[in-house]
Amino acid sequence: MGETSTHTKIASIHVLDELNRELEKLKPFFGKSMVANIKPNIHEKISNIFKRNKRRDKYTPTRQQLITFYLNSTNLGQLWYILDALINTFMALLFIFATTYVDESNSQVPIIVQEIDCTFAWILLFLFLPRGYIAPNFRKFVFSDFFVVSLLTIISPLMIARNRILDPTYYEKTLMAAGYYVYTYPLRFYRLKYIFGQIFKSTRNPFKISIATQKAIESIATVTTVIMAITALTYTIVYQQRITDEEQVMSFGDVLFYTSVSSITGLTSDVVPNTLFTRGVAIFIMFLGIIWMPPKMSEVLSVIEKRNPLPKSYKPEPHQKHVLVIGDLNLGSLVEFLREFFSQDHGQQIVNTKVVLMSENEPDSCVQALLNDPSYKTSVMFMLGSPVSPKSLRKAQIEKASSIFILSSKNVTAKSEDDYRKVMIAMSVKRYLLGVDAKVNIYAQTLLPETSLYLERITDHVICIPELRLGILTQGVSVPGFSSLIQALVTSIPRNMEKQLKKIVKNDPHFYWIEEYISAIGQEIYQTKFSPFFRGMKFKDVAKYIYSNFNSILISVKPKKSFYESSCNISSCRHILTNPATYVFKGDEIGYLISTNSTATDEIEKIPVECTSFRESSSYVEPGDISPLIPKIKLNTGE
């Protein structure tokens, strides 16, 4: 037993030594480390296609099916068509170039031109033959128009070169030394119609152009190639129908003008339709102009009209901020959002702020009319993009945005599905911001209260519309007027509208309370930062100073997070402290005011530090001399 184990170990060591020696031999080829190439390259893919399987069943794909599938699923098939189109285009242009050598005294072309044409024909032949192999139905392919036109386009230059060698005297007396094969030249223009159609019908084209542009190019190419084919045929027939050799030979450009313009518009041309063929061409072109071309041109114009002019990226202007709005972008939501966002009561901070609306779908006609409104045309833009796509978020530059708003549809029936989509959008936005190490405030709307639980950790602020509405109604039952107070504080009313309302009720003594109510709805909540001037002062003193100097009421502050970690005098760890009388300011807080003056926030933030100390300030008020924050209003009793 022990002897057998010893022999096994010796054999294993021997095998390992052999493997090590083989690996040493392979080191020069692979370097210091060898990495397995799991993804095969293009050569391996093609070689695997041509390997024959010994065992096949009726459901095993054939080699023809594998090649066809590979060409259709990769860009190689489109590159094949593009190369075919290039060679075909060169042959068509070579024919137009050859017509420049033909005049009244000469019908020949240089031999080098035919040799180049023959070379192109050989290349096109090698590009065309494999199409018969991969055709699903070879019999149908052979009897198709494309096969016949391609065969004549390829064979004619080869036969012309062959016959010119066998009988040069005969071909010296014919047009372009082509004999009867000259009538096949127009087919190379017609063949381009099919090739361009295959290129621009595919969504996998390598040109990176939109589908609308592809459709427009395809329609234009169809009209152009048909006109050029008719022009080439007309040019050949007109030359052959000359009565004498001294008769003038029309150039290709003159015939092109005749076929494309004169026969439709009635303009004069050097080509006079005095023969049966030219008259037939004129009638045929008129038929194309009346029946066939209008639908094609209408299709081109409609595609160009529907081309998407909306930008797909945001490029900020100098000294400009922006906010991103995603989610539900219907007319009702946008009208309320934009009216509130661009209210004049918000001060100068909105002047250089641009609202970027991003959606996967194009805006409808109502939203487009709103965007064209002069009030929003320069301050609001709509860009196409998916909020769950990192590429679209990068183009929107959300890492530089001031805020991000995720709106919900208030009238949607499938509330759960809409909220789930908002959760996915918020997760995508948050993940992108974490990836670029950016901090941007995210505000989200939800339709169901349970959705707020998912978004609390993702977004900075979550508002559940039904929950907020029911909460305000509940508080309104306990405290009458509470809902009106909240509505007035969170709704912006322009100053000019407030003046107009006061003017209406000013002369009526029975509506004195309405004038007071109008003054109240002009009060709004503003957010402000504090100047270092307030550092070391208590909240109650700061509130007195702000009320005395700016006629504004300071109701709460939001300290930095470090305050909650070090302070023990506040029992509740809320982010916002409401009326903390003994709180000492550090200068980095954010305050919330009730005021009618939108510029008060900028003035409070810019109070110079070196003006005076607080107690030496002329605006300092002793505790006994304080007037009430809410002034007494003299009621008009009508006496």
Automatic annotation (TrEMBL):
Signal peptide: none annotated. The keyword 4Fe-4S does not apply. The keyword Transmembrane helix applies. GO terms for molecular function: potassium channel activity. It comes from the Eukaryota. One of its GO terms (cellular component) is membrane. InterPro entries: K_chnl_BK_asu, K_chnl_Slo-like, RCK_N. It is a multi-pass membrane protein. The chain crosses the membrane at residues 79-99, 111-129, 141-160, 180-196, 216-238, 276-293. Its main location: membrane. Keywords: Ion channel, Ion transport, Membrane, Potassium, Potassium channel, Potassium transport, Transmembrane, Transmembrane helix, Transport. It is found in: Membrane. This is RCK N-terminal domain-containing protein. It comes from Smittium simulii. The lineage of its organism: Eukaryota, Fungi, Fungi incertae sedis, Zoopagomycota, Kickxellomycotina.
